[in-house]
Amino acid sequence: MSTPREGLSLSGASTSSPARRDHGVRRAGRLRREDLAWRWGGRIASWLPILGLVLALIVLAIKAWPAVIVNGAGFLSRSQWLPGNTYGSVVHTHGVAHPVGSSYGAWPLIAGTLETSLIALIIAVPIAIGTALALTELLPGWLARPLGFFVEILAGVPSVVIGLWGVLEIGPFLAHHVYPLVANNVPNVGPFRYLKGPVGYGEGLLTSGLILGLMIVPIIASTTRDLFLQVPALPKEGAEALGLTSAEVARRVTVPWVRAGIIGATVLGLGRALGETMAVAMISGSVLGQVSPTLYGTMTTIAATIVSQLDSAATDGTGFAISTLAEAGLILAVIAVLVNLAARAIISRGSRLAAPVGRG
Amino acid sequence: MSHVDQSYPSTSRRRVKALLFRWSTLLALALVVAPATWLVVGVVVRAVPHWQWNVLTTLSQGTSGGLENAIVGTLVLMAGVALIAGSIGVLTGIHLAELTRSRRGGMGARLAIDVLAGFPSIVLGYVGYVALCVGLHWGFSLLAALLILSLMVVPFIAKSTESALRQVPTNYREGAEALGMSQGYALRRVVLRSALPGIVTGLLIALSVAGGETAPLLYTAGATNNLPTFSLLHQPVAYLTYYVWTDYNQPTDSAHYVSYDAALILVVLVLTMLISARIIVARTQRHAERSR
């Protein structure tokens, strides 16, 4: 602690005893071997994620294939989710065995995934940018640093705990105190119609979207805050010297300076919202088979469906239910991966983080 | 307005806007901090009134009893992930930062890492269930859970290792080379030591993610009320998130307590790891500033 150099451990190498330094010369043969060990270790290790990913994709594709054949393109547009009679007779379509009466459509799941993520983005982006501005431009360091850490911590809370809080505390609170006010007072025109109607018990589309928004705020806010901190002081000071107010400096200098990074962080948050599983499985109401007519209605997403249906899908002796879940998973993976790659391409110059986004 | 010089557009309105801006950013901050506080307080308030310390030392009976098996199971899973994902991730990070010469080198690994980082964890869990537990007949098992969890957090460990290594000043490497050290020796004695705090921080965050996961574990680790065994295959492993997920909507109070207790222990566990990561970062930053 006392010598500042200890922390960086440069001393271990550059000021080490002569005997240690000779080590490098005398045993040159062994050191070549160490070079090789590092090189091969790194090479092999870096192949393992590739291998794991390729194997996972192959498994997913093989499992999904029978479902792709039978369900056809209608899988994307149909709404019903009927496992059929798993104890009844087995029928064959295009050579694939499945229970009689089974018919699957993923449209409600896809719509639910996109709707909740859209609500989350609408909520999270302005709040995150405002939070980042408050933390960097407004509050003094002694207050901003602990608050910033608190916001970061929120990203680390397990999603099952957030789901528990959502279903026990904030869901009922919203359903009793907030949603009725909104539903009774919005005009019955245009998109506001979706805010009309029975408000339910706090499990459903809007609550899921709000919770997802809360979950992705820390991702967007902490990235945006780090970006704001990188904006050089000179242009901001120059703008202030020209007489711009703090709001104008933020709008015309700070935010435009890192716009690409903010968009990237937003898309990264979107990726997290799309793949989020447990919180949505607990708060959505997990109702299959229909797209919710109002924002308060119960629904489900692709990820929540996989986690809640895999158990019962395993009882389908033909394996067709499992296969259909693979097809749904494939759709989700493709959407999430594309979104995530886009985000990383946008912010590749700035942040190098690779926090797992599709969590549960 | 007409009496105001054109070059000074309505100052009072701009001032009001600035005030509004200031208050709206504070409102945004409050809209994050308030629910986050509510969340943490809510978890504590639900668990603490019924908290009994023997929860830590008694086995679960499903919807009642303690959580010893789940705590030990979660710790075992985290240790296993630290071992598997830690070594693979750190080595991959070293490979990407130090050992690839050309810009094209390591492109496959980089792409795989980026894709994996965006992969929904429930889909990975599905693959683990279908391929490892059923396909390879491993059953619900520690190894299946570890492989899937590791696949999930390797990208984060690799990236944080890479960025920690990239922050090591080039002079260190040049100095080491000038002293006649081989690359491997310099890596071990100079570069890695200097990057160690960053690497450990990344590991801690990755482990806190792994410890809080549910979706990839439900169908790979399975469920059991027993302590984890030392067998890698065919034996399910208990973990804390499972009890939060299965017991919160059971009809009995005892089940609810199990769920709330598990949530509290999880939050404490995760926060401890995140705060230690933060302390490491703060300390090394202080050292770095002083030694300049």
How many discrete domains of chain B?
2
Termini distance of chain B? Answer: 56 Å
Strand order within the widest beta sheet of chain A? 1-4
Number of strands of chain A: 4
Order of helices and strands of chain B: HHHHHHHHHH
CATH architecture of the domain at 104-347 in chain A: Orthogonal Bundle
CATH superfamily of the largest domain in chain B: MetI-like
The helix content of chain B, as a percent range, equals over 70%
Number of strands of chain B: 0
* Structural class by sheet pairing and helices of chain B: mainly alpha
CATH-defined topology of the largest domain in chain B: MetI-like fold
Q: Taking all residues together, what is the mean pLDDT of chain A?
A: 83
SSE arrangement of chain A, N to C: HHHEEEEHHHHHHHHHH
Oligomer: heterodimer
Write up what this structure looks like.
The complex is a heterodimer of chains A (360) and B (292). Chain A contains 13 helices and four strands. Chain A has 360 residues and is mainly alpha-helical. Chain A has a domain at 104-347: MetI-like fold. In chain A, the strands form two sheets. Chain A has a two-stranded antiparallel sheet. In chain A, strands 2-3 form a two-stranded antiparallel sheet. In chain A, helix 4 packs antiparallel against helix 5, helix 6 (159-185) crosses helix 7 and helix 7 (205-230) runs antiparallel to helix 10. Chain A is globular. The two termini of chain A are 40 Å apart. The model of chain A is unreliable at 1-26 and 350-358 (pLDDT under 50). With 292 residues, chain B is mainly alpha-helical. Chain B has two domains: 11-50; 53-291, Orthogonal Bundle (MetI-like fold). Chain B is 72% helix and 0% strand. In chain B, helix 2 (68-99) runs antiparallel to helix 7 and helix 2 crosses helix 9. The termini of chain B are far apart. The model of chain B has no long low-confidence stretch (mean pLDDT 88). Classes of the chains: A mainly alpha (360), B mainly alpha (292). The interface between A and B is large, with 118 and 121 residues.
